[in-house]
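This follows on from our talk about sequence and fold. Go ahead and set the record down below:
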Amino acid sequence: MIGILITGVFPVASHVREAFLAEYVIYFVWLTLSESWNLVGGYAGLLNLGLVAFFGIGAIVASLAFVAGFSLIPAMIIAGCVGSIFALVLIPTFRLRTDYFAIATLVIPVIVKPLVEYFTKKESFACNA
């Protein structure tokens, strides 16, 4: 517990180089993705191919919150809430088993990809204006 607290407070409390902080963030992104795969694939025994959709939605919502003027913590909370709402909508897919669950979760990123591309293009124009 103390290690988790130190890990969360370290980047905020100390003045570290930006390159180190970027590597630190990427490390925890991969750690989060691996744990989500462990929960669904390992403990539940399901082949989930839609995890990237949650990753993309969280990234887009957080970046849109940054563009709107929110700071880091509120942007993360907003992105987490939107991801949670998206997960609640997809609860019926947990009734499916084996190949049907894999196909249903493979459709999710296919549907989300155009939305991510649209908001990415829109955001890049907003930043350049």
Notes: Residues 43-129 form one domain. The mean pLDDT is 78. The two ends are 45 Å apart (CA to CA).
